[in-house]
Amino acid sequence: MTSLHAEVAVRRGAFALDVTIAAHPGEIVGVLGPNGAGKSTLLAVLAGHLVPSAGVVRVGERTLTAVWDQRVESAVRPEHRSVGLLGQDPLVFPHLSARENVAFGPRATGTSAARARVVADEWLAAVGLAGLADRRPDALSGGQRQRVALARALAAEPAVLLLDEPFAQLDVRTAAELRELVREQVRRTRTATVLVTHDVLDAVTLADRVVVLHDGQVVEQGRPLDVLTDPVHPFTAALAGVNLVVGTLVALPDGSTALAGPDGVVVPCASQRPGGRAQVTFSPSAVTIGDGWSATVVDLEPGTTGVRLRTSGDVLVDLPPAQVAQLGLHVGAQVRLSVPAEHVRVRPLT
Ligand SMILES: Nc1ncnc2c1ncn2[C@@H]1O[C@H](COP(=O)(O)OP(=O)(O)OP(=O)(O)O)[C@@H](O)[C@H]1O
User: Ligand 1 atom 9: the closest Cα is on which residue?
Assistant: First the structure.
């Protein structure tokens, strides 16, 4: 039962990563971010595949990586770090049975063949593959192979588990089952876990905490619920399916304050004074159609509750299909939009 603590700086040409991350025993920390944010670079440092420009990686009392003033003081090799990895493609040996694959870790640390077999069978039962121990990977489904890979990673009793989009190749149902299994096993074994993902479902169903990376920097972090209901960064807002508009606080003729955003977007900011800049967030389902600012429909797509419109100013609007039909909405249509003040979260920008 050990914690992970890492402070990592990497310089790769123009790209700079500066991240501090920690995971407690049994905790799953989700790392989210757009392409190129630095997620894989961070994982590579934690796994020991990349020596950072500066920083430290500690697991419990052990220092796995330490680089200061361009001196590498410690760089434990990947196979000696006690760090397990589960990626998109199951890491399994094709020529070994499921049992032999899972027994590999215990065998490598000196466990007898007989004992490693028992441990492997226990793990295969824990991941729901009790009857399939003798099968080779090519006689298993993708989801089953990923279960073998999970059992294999955990049978080695790693201090830290790194998950790199482990459900990305699986169908929706299998992914949901695997998420549940990962959560259960991480909790049971109290393994500190870092989960890199693009998928908001992973964040909300698995992560205890999320860290959002952008351009190599942590732009926000916290409990998934908090981060996704009140996102600070446009990437997180898009992930959460929430509108985020940045603009200037202005006085309206009726004396109230509103945020004036790009493309004529006007959003009420009741509690604010005019002057200065702010950002507002609001749900696409909170936007009403009929009066307010003038916008153009840019595209329409099926939404989770009806039809989702993207409008000029990058504002998303969710409407029931009947309303879309009634109003005859189409790409290029002009609409008037408004958001009731009570649905708007305002964050002044300094
Ligand atoms: N071997 C390398 N040499 C130089 N630069 C690299 C190397 N690998 C990645 N980079 C750069 O480092 C930055 C971060 O890349 P990284 O792969 O860590 O991002 P990511 O968040 O994992 O992206 P994705 O979601 O697309 O996998 C990018 O600008 C990338 O071009």
Answer: 41
Q: For residue 1, is pLDDT > 80?
A: no
Residue 307's alpha-carbon distances to 167, 294, 318, 319, in angstroms, are 28, 19, 6, 5
Q: Quick one: tokens of 89?
A: 């493609």
On the question of pLDDT at 174 being above 90, the answer is: no
Can you tell me the distance from the alpha carbon of 203 to that of 225, in angstroms, rounded to the nearest whole number?
A: 9
User: Nearest 5°: CA angle at 25, between 21 and 30?
Assistant: 45
Query: What is this structure's pTM?
Result: 0.85
Q: Ligand 1 center to residue 239 CA distance, Å?
A: 20
Atom 2 of ligand 1, residue of closest alpha carbon = 12
Residue 178, both tokens: 């695997």
Domains of the chain: 4-234 (3.40.50.300), 242-349 (no CATH)
Say yes or no: CB of residue 37 within 6 Å of ligand 1.
yes
Question: 272 exposed, middle or buried (CB, 10 Å; 0-12, 13-18, 19+)?
Answer: middle
26: left (phi over 0), alpha (psi -120 to 50) or beta: left
pLDDT in tens, 79-90: 899 999 988 877
Per-residue buried b or exposed e for 301-311, using 16+ beta carbons within 10 Å of the residue's own CB: eebeeebbbbb
Q: State yes or no: pLDDT of 48 exceeds 90.
A: yes
Which one-letter amino acid corresponds to residue 343? H
249 Cβ inside 6 Å of ligand 1? no
Kindly state if the Cβ of 41 falls inside 6 Å of ligand 1. yes
